[in-house]
Design a protein that fits this description.
By secondary structure, this protein is mainly alpha-helical. It contains 14 helices and five strands. Helix 3 packs across helix 13 and helix 4 packs across helix 8. The radius of gyration is 22 Å and the shape is elongated. The two termini are 31 Å apart. The structure holds tryptophan.
Length: 326
């Protein structure tokens, strides 16, 4: 039997190259190997965006379209929205009864969010964020969870909750394992990490022209001021993108000629634009196809949710029995 995998992403809206290289490419590969579940966690977004539910709704759809554009294939994996599977909420409630508050208060993402969001008093829901994540994972009895480093504390907590549950009520759940994604950090146009909030991102849905424009404005080696100056590829965000999107021999050629000073930034950026647009073309075409056919996306998400509910309900039957609930 195939091992089961689950991962989730908050509906942060249209996805950029950082999301693509950091998570999606890996997921597209993994869907071939595992019985895969991919969940858009809209309830998790309510922990910080409870006042703008319409935003979450819109962004959920944007993420779904980009997932499919990136190559998640509904014939091979189950794509669904968390709130379409109410069993997650039921398991979250039950797990919350066996999760000590100090376990949650020491989670780094909680401490960070509390400070960054400048909220006087964090909500009960925000504190419980990792318990809901544990429910997402456990309800499918997932064996592996592909995530970035920042999520490791959440997975450790999931394992602790799993052990505690099994100890109290009997062996219902497997202990999941993190599948750490070793992805290159994708720099944005200003050289900082690509992020929606820095306004430095190139999006899957950008047109080829928009992409060209953004690359033209990209930061390069600040010491390479004009054509003849030698450059330092290792500090240049344009070069970092070449390393991801350009053929190896071209990357070597650019490295050599940039250092020698006989390759100018304008030409180097043109080469990147061509390569990147070529790589993104099939994704963008797929994106357009789905964006033009909302009924089809709805159908995919509905079928995904139906399949997820079936598995989740089966687990909940075991959980209720183990906890002597009707
Ligand atoms: N906390 C994750 C993130 O911010 C999102 C998430 C929610 C998740 N539930 C999950 C990831 C379950 C993996 C498995 O990226």
């Amino acid at each position: 039997m195939q091992k089961r995998m689950l991962s989730g992403m908050q509906p942060t809206g249209i996805l950029h190259l950082g999301n693509l290289e950091g998570a999606l490419r890996n997921w597209v590969r993994l869907q071939e190997e595992y019985d895969s579940y991919f969940c858009i966690v809209d309830w998790h977004s309510l922990t910080t965006l409870a006042e703008t539910p319409e935003l979450i709704k819109k962004q959920t759809l944007d993420v779904a379209i980009d997932w499919l554009a990136a190559g998640l294939n509904p014939e091979k994996c189950t794509v669904f929205i968390q709130s379409h599977v109410p069993q997650h909420a039921e398991l979250h409630l039950l797990l919350s009864m066996i999760t000590p508050v100090p376990w949650l208060e020491r989670v780094p993402t909680y401490k960070e969010k509390k400070e960054n969001l400048n909220i006087e008093s964090a909500s009960y829901g925000l504190l419980g964020y990792p318990v809901l994540q544990a429910a997402d994972i456990m309800i499918y009895k997932a064996d592996v969870v592909p995530v970035g480093k920042d999520q490791l504390p959440h997975l450790e907590l999931t394992r602790e909750i799993t052990r505690r549950f099994n100890h109290l009520y009997g062996e219902v759940f497997p202990e999941c394992e993190a599948l750490l994604t070793e992805a290159a950090v994708v720099p944005g146009t200003d050289g900082r990490k690509m992020s929606k909030s820095y306004d430095n991102a190139i999006y899957i849905q950008d047109s080829a022209e928009e992409t060209a424009k953004k690359i033209k404005t990209m930061f390069t080696d600040p010491l390479k001021l004009r054509m003849g100056d030698p450059g330092r590829p290792e500090v240049c965000p344009v070069f970092a993108l070449h390393e991801i999107y350009s053929p190896k021999d071209q990357v070597a050629w650019i490295d050599e000629h940039c250092r020698a000073g006989d390759l100018g930034c304008v030409q180097c950026k043109k080469m990147l634009t061509e390569n990147l647009n070529e790589k993104l073309r099939p994704l963008r075409e797929r994106r357009q196809m789905y964006a033009d056919d909302p009924a089809q996306i709805e159908k995919i998400l509905e079928e995904g949710a139906a399949k997820a509910r079936e598995v989740a309900e089966e687990t909940m039957r075991e959980v209720r029995k183990a906890m002597m609930l009707p």
